[in-house]
Amino acid sequence: MIKLLRLLFVFTGFILVSTSALLGTAVADTPFPTVHLPADESLKCIQPADEMRRNHMNYIMHQRDITVHDGIRTEPDSLSGCIDCHVEPRVESSGKEGEIASFKSNEHFCTSCHQYAAVQIDCFQCHADRPQKYIKRSYHTSSLKNQLQQAMTATAEVEQ
User: Fold this and answer.
1) Are 109 and 87 in contact (CB under 8 A)?
2) Residue ranges of the domains in the chain?
3) What is the dihedral of CA 77, 47, 102, 26, to 10 degrees?
């Protein structure tokens, strides 16, 4: 009985190793996702493409800490800056022309790379996944923004 179990384990191990070797070859041939470059060629990213591919999360987390903890908002390193440049309306003739892909779609700038790397995107639980100029704002949201800004100003004046 023990010899039979050993033989079964050896056979199972052989199958697993063979299968992983075949899958490893298929994965190695998987192309990198396509990164949509901005339509305006005069715009340059804050870092070279290979640097951004490797370290963009470090830049985003560093900027998050500066913004949230210190209240300093700068444009070159902001998530909205990335979205404003790299997420654009569709221009094809598939009937979806002018639509902007949501981050839930494979066509979104962030999603294709995150799926490739098997990394979850949690930025868009709070942040907009499309450029600000394409977000339709109602009077209601503008009013809320004004109310928030007035409350923050009042709090700042009280603290001084």
Assistant:
1) yes
2) 33-132
3) -140
Asked if 65 and 73 count as a contact pair (C-beta separation under 8 A), the reply is no
CB distance 136 to 118 below 8 Å = no
Residue that the structure tokens 């963009």 belong to: 56
Q: 103: exposed, middle or buried (C-beta count within 10 Å: 0-12, 13-18, 19+)?
A: buried
Tokens 């903890």: give the residue: 69
Whole-number Å distance between alpha carbons of 63 and 47? 14
Q: Could you tell me the CA-to-CA distances from 58 to 2, 61, 62, 130, 137 in Å, in that order?
A: 52, 5, 6, 21, 31
Write out the two tokens for 44: 């340059």
pTM (global) more than 0.70: no
Structure tokens at 52: 């951004």
Question: Coil, strand or helix: which one is 1?
Answer: coil
- pLDDT tens-place values along the chain, 160 residues long: 788 778 777 778 778 776 665 555 555 566 777 777 777 777 778 788 888 888 888 888 888 888 888 888 777 677 888 888 888 777 665 556 678 888 888 778 888 888 888 888 888 888 888 887 777 666 555 566 777 778 888 877 777 6
